[in-house]
Each structure stands twice: as structure tokens, then as C-alpha cells.
Amino acid sequence: MGLGGAIKQAVSWCAPWAVVVRGPTGPTRRVAMTFDDGPHPENTPRILDVLDAHDARATFFLQGEMADRHPKIVREIARRGHQIGNHGYAHQDARAVASRVYVADVLRAQTAIEDILGQTLPRIFRPPFGNIAPASMLALLRRRFCFIFWSLDSRDSFIADAPALVSHIGRQRIDPGCIMLFHDDYRRTAEALAELIDIVKERGMSLVTVKDLLSPAR
Predict the structure, then answer these.
(1) How far, in Å, CA of 38 to CA of 183, rounded?
(2) pLDDT digits (tens, 9 = 90+) for 141-150
């Protein structure tokens, strides 16, 4: 484990509000699908339609740059009841840029998305590539950002097509509290989504936003 990983683990123990890898494993049997890198002009609307058809909610970690290009889709994500998080403005790797540059990029994305929606959003952030440098992490924690990682990587960045993605997810253990990582800039993910949702529901679980996953059952 690198220094960044060690700090992430230490922070998750000391301040569980600050770093989230999975939700509670209680009896509510809820999981969260999350989508990174959008909004995509073709795939994201298709994903939204599939989620609606299955009465499922998800969390979208948006790039600020893509949000500025497709503001109508950002507003549509929110209108349909999904959660929106921050994935940086220009998808920078925290290990490759200075902390001040990285933090400014994250803040720029937060402002861009909030300006599009006309409202202040909770400061939930998923680092691009899942990488975070200690100085950048501490700077963002001081600004009250919560880091949302994942407990199940769909590998949709590497899997070639929709059938292979469905097969891969079908072989995974999906437990209550699971946070699943997907990307809405891949056509194969949009094509596979209906079957992926069926897999989750066949295992007796409902799909909710990260916010609801972390909230006490009502």
C-alpha cells in the first residue's frame, strides 16, 4: 500500500464521514451503482432511461469539463432523482500534478456543476483513477469534501463488450452496502445496464444513490 492508500485507510478509520468505500451491510439490502466520467451525450441519456425503466437510482460523478459541454444532461440527471458528485474538472491524476493545481481543479468542477444546477451540492468527490496524493487529500478534507471510492470495480474500462461485462458482473459477489464502479462514457456499459440491474435485483437488492445507501433506513 502506498502512502496515499495508507492515509486513505487511516482517515476512513478516524473520520468515516470523510472516506467511504462501501455502505452499511445491514438488513436493508441496498447497493449503489455509480457512474464516472460523464455526462456523455449519447450514453448518459440511455443509462437514465434504463434506470427509470427499472425504478433504480444511481450516483453520477461528473467531470466539470463534460458538464460544461452538456449542461442539459446534468440537469436531467438531477431532475430524474439521481445524485451528482464531483469527478474533477479535467480528470487529472493527483499523483501527476501539484496539490494546488489539483485542488483548484476539483473546486472548479464543483462550481461548474453547481452553477449549471443553480444550487449548492454536497461535496462528494471521487478522484479520477482512484488516485489521491496525501497533500491533495488533506487539502480537500479541510474543505469538507467526502471521498467516495468503491467496493466493486466493474472493469468496464477494460472489458471489450456488453456480454462480457454482464458475464463478469454475474461472477462477482454483490453484498448489501456494495458501491459499484461503472463509467457512462462506454457504450458497452449502457448496452449491458438492463441485464446488470437484473443481476442485482435477482440477488434481492435494490439500487439507490450513495446518499441513500449511507442514510439510515426509513
Answers:
(1) 7
(2) 999 999 999 9
Residues ≥6 apart with Cβ < 8 Å to 128: 36, 87, 88, 91, 92, 93, 94
The whole-number pLDDT of residue 72 equals 98
Give the Cβ contact number of residue 96 at 10 Å: 11
Q: What is the pTM of this model?
A: 0.92
User: How is residue 162 written as a grid cell?
Assistant: 456488453
- Cβ-in-10-Å burial (0-12, 13-18, 19+) of 155 comes to middle
Could you tell me if 50 and 195 are in contact, meaning their C-beta atoms sit under 8 angstroms apart? no
Asked if pLDDT for residue 68 goes beyond 90, the answer is yes
Q: Where do we find the cell 451528482?
A: 84
Largest CA distance in the chain: 46
20, β-bridge pairs: 148
177 with 30: CB under 8 angstroms?
Answer: yes
Burial class, 75, CB count within 10 angstroms (exposed 0-12 / middle 13-18 / buried 19+): middle
Question: Of the candidates 24, 2, 30, 10, which has an alpha carbon nearest to the alpha carbon of residue 130?
Answer: 2
Q: CA 88 to CA 111: how far, in whole Å? A: 11
